[in-house]
Amino acid sequence: MSSSSSLTQRNPTISEEPADSPPPPQLRRQPSISQHAVSQTLTSVANLANLLPTGTLLAFQFLIPVFTSNGSCEYSTRVLTAVLLTLLSISCFLSSFTDSVKAEDGNVYYGFATRKGMWVFDYPDPSGLGLPDLSKYRIRIVDWIHAVLSVLVFGAVALREKNAVSCFYPAPEQGTKKVLDIVPMGVGVICGLLFLVFPARRHGIGYPVTGNGGRR
């Protein structure tokens, strides 16, 4: 009995492991090329939607059937529709130069970008006390690029609206119809790619507000 117990003590079982042994390493799966492409495509579509201010897009969708009489335009209604599209395009262009800032009171205020900074037009204190440094919100070349892209995207949306197309082209020829089908899609793809190259950092009127005043 004593010899067997001594052998047991000299030869411990192999199944015994130290309590503090590290866990086995886990394999990390790298995203595939297709998953990465889908992610980039979704990001591009989301950024392309952000190019248009929400108020302008809603006004277009609400007013265009009224102005065009559901696509049955006469000369007077065609002129009014052209004026409406021009005003909405100007709204898209100017909205690209608006931005928002978060003051010390926790509220978000809007302004217009200038060469020296940003003019906040709804802040109650004219001295600007409580606002962050507005010089970093000054206008840049990328703002002009976004303004042009916004107008182009709005034009592509207008060309895909059946009432607007029927107003200006009630009976388009086969070649004109193909152009009206291809051009908006091409403009949308090109603007989406350019928007990825020149991402927007402003959150102006009609655009979603994210981050805080020190996001730049």
From TrEMBL:
<keyword id="KW-0472">Membrane</keyword>
<feature type="compositionally biased region" description="Polar residues">
    <location>
        <begin position="1"/>
        <end position="14"/>
    </location>
</feature>
<feature type="transmembrane region" description="Helical">
    <location>
        <begin position="179"/>
        <end position="198"/>
    </location>
</feature>
<feature type="region of interest" description="Disordered">
    <location>
        <begin position="1"/>
        <end position="33"/>
    </location>
</feature>
<dbReference type="Pfam" id="PF05078">
    <property type="entry name" value="DUF679"/>
</dbReference>
<keyword id="KW-1133">Transmembrane helix</keyword>
<feature type="transmembrane region" description="Helical">
    <location>
        <begin position="48"/>
        <end position="67"/>
    </location>
</feature>
<comment type="similarity">
    <text>Belongs to the plant DMP1 protein family.</text>
</comment>
<keyword id="KW-0812">Transmembrane</keyword>
<protein>
    <recommendedName>
        <fullName>DUF679 domain-containing protein</fullName>
    </recommendedName>
</protein>
<dbReference type="InterPro" id="IPR007770">
    <property type="entry name" value="DMP"/>
</dbReference>
<feature type="transmembrane region" description="Helical">
    <location>
        <begin position="141"/>
        <end position="159"/>
    </location>
</feature>
<feature type="transmembrane region" description="Helical">
    <location>
        <begin position="79"/>
        <end position="97"/>
    </location>
</feature>
